[in-house]
Write a structure and sequence with these properties.
Layout (H helix, E strand, L loop, with lengths): L2 E6 L8 H15 L3 E5 L8 H6 L3 E3 L5 E7 L5 H7 L3 E7 L10 E4 L19 E4 L8 H8 L10 E5 L8 H8 L7 E6 L6 H11 L2 E4 L4 H7 L2 E5 L2 H8 L4 E5 L5 H10 L3 E5 L5 H9 L6 H11 L7 H10 L1
Parallel strand pairs: 1-2, 1-4, 2-3, 4-5, 5-6, 6-7, 8-9, 8-11, 9-10, 11-12, 12-13
Length: 322
């Protein structure tokens, strides 16, 4: 049995995206008979218990393994070189076009010239998996895409998800903006790491909104929604993959290039940097939903992710392990 260690992180500040996409990879590798362990630091909002609940052992220091998978903005080439004696092969998941010492690199993001993004930044022997073909999608999203339904222009069902921890507290801004809006159904999704989740749950209860915390059925909510207000990053690609018209608020530096480019291509509405977004910004968005060409957003999102091959990265990882 091949032993794989995933070095990643989650916290209130970092968010949960790195861990969630690593869990998708871990579940697939476990189905292939691999033993997958997670190495994470106990920061506030770390998701260590959640990873354990998902059936994966966690460790607190380096161990020898057949493969290390690193998905961590705080780790770069220097750390990768120090871990080499512990592993036969090394894989990196990145979004930022940084230099790495690895055998396999995965960057799923759609950015200008993504095919050449890592030229000179990784060893010549490194296999590069770049762009939307290699989107990391949970099985639930893959199934929804297979059963895709066309939406009409009547936006009645709204989905709000601003990331697992929502460190900039966008959800509360949106809830304030929604006070005078009328939708037949509103879904508000948060993660366990959201420090405001109790207040959000109380507001949802008072307004008869549907509150969801740390769920495993996000694809189902996206399938049912007519429009979504969300953040950039991995959840933006999930919305695009299932053809859900949406807006994106940039809540972290690493989302800047991808969100701007997705907006330029017409796949999302980029509201801008979170510090510049106010309650009135969200009110304006909500008031203008009837004028938005949701069908164009839907169509462009699907076209942008059309080259995606469900878990195409899995065969490459297994080949690396062979």
């Amino acid at each position: 049995m091949k032993k794989i260690i995933i070095r990643t992180a989650a916290s209130v500040e970092i968010g949960s995206g790195h861990v969630m996409r690593c869990l998708t990879i871990a579940h697939n590798l476990k189905r292939e008979g691999c033993n997958v362990l997670f190495w994470m630091e106990p920061h506030a909002g770390n998701l260590i218990d959640f990873v354990a609940q998902q059936g994966h052992e966690t460790i607190a220091k380096a161990e020898h393994a057949d493969l290390y998978i690193i998905d961590h903005y705080g780790i770069g080439m220097e750390w990768e070189q120090t871990i080499r004696p512990y592993t036969k092969k090394l894989m990196v998941i990145d979004d930022l076009a940084r230099a790495h010492d690895c055998d396999l690199l995965l960057d799923q993001n759609v950015v200008p010239n993504f095919e050449r993004r890592y030229e000179g930044l990784v060893p010549d022997y490194c296999v590069k998996l770049l762009g939307p073909k290699y989107l990391i999608m949970r099985e639930e999203f893959i199934e929804v895409r297979k059963q895709y339904r066309c939406r009409n222009r009547n936006i009645q069902r709204l989905l709000v998800f601003m990331g697992g921890t929502d460190p900039t507290n966008e959800t509360m801004k949106i809830l304030t903006a929604l006070e005078k809006s009328k939708f037949s159904h509103v879904d508000i999704v948060v993660g366990n790491g959201n420090v405001h989740k109790e207040t959000i749950e109380q507001i949802c209860r008072e307004r008869n909104y549907h509150y969801h915390c740390q769920i495993s059925y996000m694809a189902e909510l996206m399938e049912q929604a007519d429009f979504s207000i969300g953040a950039g990053g991995g959840s933006m690609w999930e919305r695009c993959y299932v053809g859900l018209p949406s807006s994106s608020t940039i809540v972290a530096d690493n989302q800047l290039i991808t969100t701007n480019y997705a907006d330029q291509l017409g796949a999302v509405i980029n509201l801008g940097w979170h510090a510049d977004i106010t309650v009135n910004s969200y009110i304006t968005l909500l008031n203008n939903l009837s004028n938005i060409d949701a069908k164009k957003l839907e169509r462009t999102s699907l076209e942008l992710t059309a080259t995606s091959q469900p878990n195409a990265w899995l065969s490459q990882i297994l080949e690396l392990l062979a």
